[in-house]
Write a structure and sequence with these properties.
The protein has about 150 residues and is α+β, with helices and mostly antiparallel strands. The protein has one domain: Peptide deformylase (Peptide Deformylase). The chain has two helices and seven strands. The strands form two sheets. A five-stranded antiparallel sheet has the order 1-2-3-6-7. The chain has a two-stranded antiparallel sheet with strand order 4-5.
Length: about 150
Amino acid sequence: MEIITLKNEERRSVLGQVSEDVNLETLDSLRPEIDKMKDLLLEVEGLGLAMPQVGLLYRCFIMRKGSKIETVINPKIVKKGKVLAVHKEGCLSVPGKELGITRPRKIDVEYYNEEGKFKKGRFVDLRSCVFQHELDHLNGRLILDRVG
């Protein structure tokens, strides 16, 4: 498994496509791919990785906090805070670029975890930024689309 970057002319078109919902009844079939993504994320020391970045058009991403990696399936932002924050963001699919991206500082979210259990949460600051960044990937957007 490898990360698709903009430099990969044969496969980069997948990065601009909208992903489809994960069917929770067939979630077991994605577990091997999720496990490979976790290994890859640790290897590259990233904060998050979305399925489209490895060529799979499913609404699933992983986010790392320290040594813990959380799987996020069929995510939705249900509420965005009014206060905005600018974070310097990099992207594994856009190597060598770090851009100041403005996003809501706080978000309330809903998603399913790797076991298919429904979760609600509130993310603030860096966690909010990572969640929104990875969700952008599921919607076919890159950080370059947020500039200008």
